[in-house]
Queue: 4 jobs
Job 1
Amino acid sequence: MSENLGQSAAAIEVREYVQNEVSRRRLLPRAALVGVSAGAIAVGFRVALQSAETFHSAAVASLPQLWQKAIVVCLIAIIGTRVSMAIGRVEPDAGGSGIPQMKAVLEGHLEMHWSRMLWVKFLGALAALGSGLALGREGPTVQMGGAVGHAVAQHTGATSREQRALIAAGSGAGLAAAFNAPLAGVTFVLEELQRDFQPVVFTAALLSAAIATVISRMASGAFPVFAVPEVGIPSLRTLPYFAIIGVVGGILGAMFNRCLLTTMAKFKSVRIERPWVMSAVAGIALSLAWMLSPSLLGGGHSLSEHALRGAFPLGIACGLFAVRFLLVHLCYSTGVPGGIFAPLLSLGALVGLVIFRMQSALDLGIHANLAMYAVAGMCAMFAAIVRAPLTAVILIGEMTASYDLLLPLLITAFVASIVAGSLKSVPIYESLLQRFAESRDFSSYVDDRRLVEFEIQPTSPLTGIKLRDAPLPAGALVVLAWKDGAEIVPNGDTILEARMKLSVLARSSQVAHDVESMAKGELA
């Protein structure tokens, strides 16, 4: 008996190896193409956005009076927001960060029109971010990368499984190119987007992210996103303070998520029925914020840099955090293309700065570098809001090149994630996906994967066609087949025949039921 079990386990291991090798040979060249394309689009978007920001700064600087500058800031923001809204109507799925939409695509709820998505997201985000809205370019780059992955999959005859892997890899490549952080791109795919740790998916995501980062660094240089002074390895005595940063970040992250959902709900009718009013509200708010500090506008890179250098005293840092917090929520509620990654990092840097100032005022005798606290604040806010702690640690480590802080950042991210969860805060992209699901009338189901076996009946629509052409529901993966008692490792060219038995990995009970009905000929 034990000998038979051992042989069966060995046979399964061999089949899995063969299947992975076949998938890898088919997938990796396509993943490389996705990485090149996603990296090129990310670089093009960055260059276009820098040009728009230069024009914005020049237009404001050309005027002598403060009130004139404020009016121009307001007008540019109003026009940019309205233009972005108008462009977004061509492809409604291009609104916001785009990450909830990518999750819906990967879960099989949404069909992406990649050709329309690319230009709408590019131009819409350019109009919105170039006009000064307090949003980031990383979310749009993630969605455009996913669209590139879908395009490559469609034009190369990829199977449904390969298509999902390429879309996820393209999204990770977009994030990697935007942040100059290849490992973060991979972990974001595995921890947040697809949550699939199969070797083939991991390898495709890693290859795409690496190539996209090479393209990005060829254009902008091999430098971290933030210039952080060398901090060295912190003393173990400072670790409780990193835990405190995690607690504060967890509380503020939970508040951020709840406020964002509330603000979006409050402005929904205004955004749809009176878009000019929504644009005017955003323009006036940006103008007032600009008069306080120009660094409050845009993605927040300069604000984060100032916080990392300790440019603000305690009171001003608190004020900037409050204004920036409100501004990000208002801008995201316009529904224009734009992400929250960079904005939440700027908020996190200010959180770290505030905690450092308070600790210094209390003179607790702990000698720590200010930059350590600001970097940890970024990590805490990301982990609490997105609830992807591993991605938070790797992303912040790569963006700041602060690899000596990995242990403190792990503590900060873990604590922030636990605190946010204890406050019953749902991860932001899960919440946004649920809102999106309600607007599109589908259910964002809980993943309850199961392995099931079916026999194809002569009346089934699956009979006589290739596996790649099989109209299987999204979330169904054929892993093994049996014909006349012989096992077959299926691929896209496998012909499905009557009385053939299939072993199918179904993502949910509903998917399993649909596959069984199709195999019996009850569902076309």
Job 2
Amino acid sequence: MDIILALKLVISTVIVLFLPGYFLSYMFLKKLNMDLFQRLIISLGLSLSFIPLLTYFFTLLGIRLNSISILLLLLIFTGIILLKYILEHKNNIGRSLNFKNFKESFKEYEMLSYLILAAILFISLVVRIIPINNIFVGPGSDSYHHTLIVQLIIENGGIPTSYEPYAPLSSFTYHFGFHSLVAFIYWLSGIDPTKLVLYTGQVLNGFFVLSIFIFVDRLFKDRNMALLSSFIVGLVSVFPAYLINWGRFTSLAGMVILPIAFLLFIETIKIEKRDIKILILSGIVLSGLFLTHYRIIIAALSFSMVYILYELYLNKDNLKREKEIILRCVIIGIIAIILLLPWFIHLMNNSHILSELPNTANYYSMERIGSSEGYYSNTFLLILSLGGILAGISKRNKYIIIISVWVSILIAFSNPYWIKLPCSGCLDFVTVVTLLFFPVSVTCSYFIIFLSEKIKTTPSKRILIFLIIIMVLIPISAIKISEVFDPSSVYIQKSDIEAMDWIRANTSNDSVFLTDSIDFDWNKDFVIGIDGGSWIPLLANRKVIIPPMTYLIENAYENNYTEKVKSMSKASESINSYSSIQFLIENNVTYVYFGGRNYGMLQLKNLQNNPYLELAYNKDGIWIFRINR
């Protein structure tokens, strides 16, 4: 990526990630005592929640989003912020803009801690961006449908009503927060969406250090603990860094919102006098989180339930306070429901998400987390985390107790094959495991601070010891995190790009490709693409038989579409038989694309010397065969 393109990416990403949220913060959170940097950090979660709502309501209103409308919207936000600032400081505007006063205010912001946070953020981003710099598209099976949905939002200027022209799915019910974010950045930068999905995902991965920092800093009132939590998330824990290998960008976006959603909810309940603005903002964040990820909202609601019950218990002798807590929660819920009502109706009429829950034990197996299970820091962090939980309970720390109960509930309900509980498995065990880095980083840092306070040394010596340890750990951790990314998880290689060029130049527009696929053993009807052929609709503008992974929750134009996809995948396993070829021809398949990964139903030995196939393309491990009719 050249310098100009990189600058466009950085500027566009920063504007989209922070400006909409800062607008909300400036309009709704003035009563919360936050310094400038805390307000900027919390803006990250607010932006991620606000953008999907903006996208959806503009779609409902029939207003098409594009570069001009997004730029105008952001200018309006900027103008309102400036106008409000001028009106609030009209009598001392000169003094408020005085550089000397601004410089002196840095002292109260504790600039050193923010500089350390900036260094942690920078290193976390660098070790995530460098390994993917020469990658063409996002890795894993999930990246294709994420990129496809971004493209659909861009082409439709809002939320699409179907997957056409890329897949024969007549509905669209998937959560779209991350995709809206990428589309906004695209409308500002013009960078290719296939690359933008990958970069935005890794930027969010690194920016989680900000979410965890503001959560710990505001609730535990301990800046050192906040920095330690950020360091653990950014450079020590295998998650969220490992999520890149699966293309779990939507899940990650929800996780980035989660600590800020928790913090805002707690601040909303804690504040002495009811503030309708903060209640409205909490409702906005809750609804935005739902649109970002349907499963992560379960984790958010679980935390909220634990926190509410804890507060009600603490105030059991204060009926007035209990009623006020319940009322505030009801108001937040009503606001969220009102905002989401059109989408709820749409889901009920079109989505099959509830009827397509996985039903086998394999789906909940630890084997699904791959090599992350053996990461070097896992055992160490687990021991520190357990120490933090015990220390927190012994000191009766409110938030450590709440976090511990919350995690226990998530684990208990995450696997229906462990304990038969109502709704168990809706937030699956693998998602819970990938989410644990958030609470683990908090309890680990709490334990480290707890131990440091037991050391009978001066605060300055303790800080020096911490700095030495961190300086030693940073290069080791940075190297380890940079190695988390597995290049073999990327389906599209340079050879695939060349094959896509050949397809566009040498095949007709109505060509249909059979691509390699596998069926997941956790769902008998679930078939997914497993090599670069999956990307043909986006990269070569031709149709494929295997649809994007989201097809099970959507409506299709054809009856029994799921059974058809399953049959097509099975046919590819026995493609050297006459009956399979006839079945493919009956379904208008004209070409077979083999990407050489040897993971799926297609086997090269069944394609070569096949009397029903004619070799059309063979270069650098990519094979394309034409079906003889």
Job 3
Amino acid sequence: MKNIIFIEKKSHIDKALSLADYPDNLIISLFPAVSVELEERKVQFKTPEDFFLPDRLNDMGMDNYGRTDGFCKYLDEVIKSKISIFSDENINAASMHYYYFKILFDSVLSKYFMLEQIIKAENPETLFYITSQKEIIDRTLFFRRSSIYSQIIPVISKKYNLKYVPYGDEAEFYYTKKRDSIKLVTELIRYSPGTLIEYIKTFTLNSLLSIKLNIENKKNKNSIFILASGHDIPHVIEELKKAKSWNILQLYYDEIKTPSPIFPYEKPLSFESDTEILSALKNSVEGLWDELLENKRFHEFFVFEDCDMFPVFEDRLGFFIKKGIVEILDVYLRHKKAFEFYKSGLILTSTTNLGYIGQSIIHAAKKAGIPTVTYQEGAGYGSPDAPMYEHTEYLTCDYFLSYGEGTENHLKKTGAQYSSKIIPTGSARLDKIMQKCQEKKNNTIKNIMYIPGYVHNNIQHFPYNAGTANYNFGVQRKIIDILKEYNEYTIFVKCAWYSHKELAQYIKNQKLRNIKIIENIPLEYVLARADMYVLDFPSTVHLECLVTGKPVFLYLDNFMTRMDPEYRELLEKRVFCCQSLEDLEKELSEALVSRHVPEKNDDLYIKKFCTYLNDRKSLERVKCFIETLNTQNSKKL
């Protein structure tokens, strides 16, 4: 009988290969870095992606919306029936965390599906794997420091009556989000002294801006509460501060602050009644969790193809019920009082996919009559399909500032439900990139920049979110193999600082002289230095490359993304879109061998999905909207 050895990290390889007592072994690499190392050692292996068709995962991802919808609706009904204040205040605790619950379901069920396909195909006797200790769960409910596989394998082994053997133990599994500042500065110096100066200038200004956000209330100023401050929001803050008539306050949605940072220092508010409510709630949620553990309907949401997956979900769901619900009410009550004190103003955020803390703040603002505004966060809002946003981003805030009319046109075309009023303004950030890069536009192609999409593994979201780690990595390697043949060009591979270490290692192993890896510099500081771009996923980076005016070659894999045919037709007037890697290789060959790239300057797609009127006045439109909205709300109050 065959034995399967799963390897998830490079550090597991030696232990895995030492299992000499089991001669009939099949090694399965669960992560690209392992695949690279095994290839270097000339060890035969397979990946889970060898055992199924990719479209199956996208279909499963779509089905999981129904599961997530039903789960959140049912859990909200149970919570409201057991805890009256949630009913009285119309707080839908589970729905506030919809974005993360969907990813949790996708992450677990996709891994279960992949393992099951391997077992059905190979009919093994024993499964070997490295266990990882369970981490301290945070409110994202993600598997950040423990392996999903090591928790699912015991469950699936039991279903198929297989023997499973842990061949090691490891305390810490996943990466930390700590950027090495020394590496960053070294990379900047190596790449360009001018880029280093630009980075220091921008970083210093942003740091000062962040410090100034946490200021006391000024009675003669209008208040803007900043929630998520990514993408275009810093440009809006900078513009509003010039007027010197705005009190800009930063809210915290990723941690609990007591007292809330937006409470005015000169008028502290009493928390006595809230403390009593929260103390009583802590006892209530313990009883609620005990009841849910015996609730048959609740357990049905975690059954996948006759396999009860609840043991994999249990700790995280217990955390949400016993701690998350208390945090939701705590944050809601405190912020509602703060907003009622300020009376006027608005919330501005770059996304509402913030988890239950951010959603609690938004709900408190609405209850206090404070308008809520989302400013689009990059790509995925209309042209490439991103069903998640239709279930989240357009349903929470009062207003949604979009990069162009394409967003609302898409929603109307698909019949999606949305409650936000969508206002096309254009992207202030893309306007700045357009101005900077087009000033440095070079008609001669010397430098090519390949910007690979992100590699997801332990945490996964379907559908159309750049595929699985092994699949995506396979695409990236093939693109590198295509580009490395053009020795007369300098190829920059711009890797994100928190991803793509395995792709960088693959390139280094081949000792390719014409390929230079940029790992630690933010894209905005190096984008203008390329004469042409190659992309494998239409992410936000895709929009940034479009507005440079330079040639863009985009690989559109049906598994990794899907585009509306009408909008793809528009995009092809600006971008070289390739449906297969063979098409990409052919298009690049025709352009690079002849040293002639046909011009594609049509800006209709850019107007619909990037900069609206393409007049570089996006920021002016946003500022005008905010001022008008604040005036209207002040009069109403």
Job 4
Amino acid sequence: MAKVGLVAGDADALCFCRSGGGAAVRCVFMFGVPSAERFGGRQSGTVARAKPCRNSRCDGGVPLRTAPIDGDGADCKGLLGRGDPENRRLGGGAAVIRTTRRTFLTGGAAALLPKPSLAQSKPRIIVVGGGFAGATCARALRRADPRLAVTLVEPNPIFTACPFSNSVIAGLRDIAAQHFHYDAIRGEGVAVLAEQATKVDPQARRVTLRGGSGLDYDRLVMAPGIAIRWDALSGYDEAAAAVMPHAWMAGDQTLLLHRQLEAMPDGGTVVISVPANPFRCPPGPYERASLIAYYLSKAKPHSKLIVLDAKDNFSKQRLFQDAWRQLYPELIEWVSLSSGGKVVSVDAKTRTLTTDFSSYKADVANVIPPQRAAGIAQIAGVADSTGWCPIDPATFESRLQPNIHVIGDAAIAGAVPKSAFAANAEAKMCAVAVRALLRGEAPPPMKLINTCYSLVAPDYGISIAGVYHPSGGQLADVEGAGGVSPIDAPAGFRALEAAYAQAWFQTITAETFG
């Protein structure tokens, strides 16, 4: 009988191997496996290991259970009721190899990539966008083969991370902790240009920069992130965002929302407007509501928070709502789509949000509007009528333009959510695919893992995990894999997941930016 095992190529890219009966070993790469800390390792020497679980599906010592309304994918189908959770184990029952933080940080994707065998000419690869997807992919390509001429085009010299920016809004974290530089990426031989890409010519294989100069490429990887759809919500434009911040791209808007909360009198009303899917970070609005509620409960306990939602279900819903009942009773009110929660217009002058059934006057209004792939994706012709970018799930190559790959939040990635973890994992998969295509080879079969943590309070964490593979022309859930935190976990378990969240952020930013 064939045997299946999990082989560590590095801590963030593992390989499922099948062998038996003298047949050749066949490996399937998996990307996006969490760090050692996620699997019960130490965080700052203070957090105990999670105990291994028996007869239940676990995420490296952290038991996960199914929540029938929880989902993280683009259409919230992520991990809906998949049978008996007793029979669901990460990776279809294969053991998870524990790895050290050192292995995770130094291994990268290089251990899994094919050995260099290119001709003398240097293939030119341009990566547009220096976030979790683009920066990771640039490093992974250079580690694959130092002879690759990799150029990262990113106009901002400092990257401001969105994960944990909700903690900045709630006054729990300084914005400086969200800042990352590109020095380590330059040190690995990637040419980092602080330039704006303004045009892409797919036929000539050329990227034009703001200053007018151009870069030719053999393969182009686009990781442009998101843009706000300013035409999608009546009354909401860039001027309105200066009064009713979206804070959905970390930086000045993050600080603006934080200052507004500080200035609001006790007894005030905070209103958060949440769009329909798809948008960046599906659980993000609910983590934001949670941490703002935490701030209000401590500093302005007579205040109220209302969440107006264009959906009836959301990611980790049972976990969030159970926590709200425990921690913030009477403080948070969630208004679903069917209850009239979809915001159809806003008035920045009066801070009023209007739905089909009612109007809400806010002291502080956080309007998270509909989104799309950033402008350069539209210019390059890789975005379709939805505003997002259709891709081949095995290679991330655009379905609309040859020799261009799209990764991260801009891509239509099927069941895979738009998250930093997924972007990092997609980048490694894309690097493997690009390397193989440059050699005239078919990319190896691969699977992708995503794990998303959310903080409901500084010491209260919850998570969701999923495993995905190319199927039916898209990235689909691997049946029997993934899940969410248990609904009935004790306080110590929630504190442990909060610590895991902190360790995950430290690890993924170090792995991405050095």
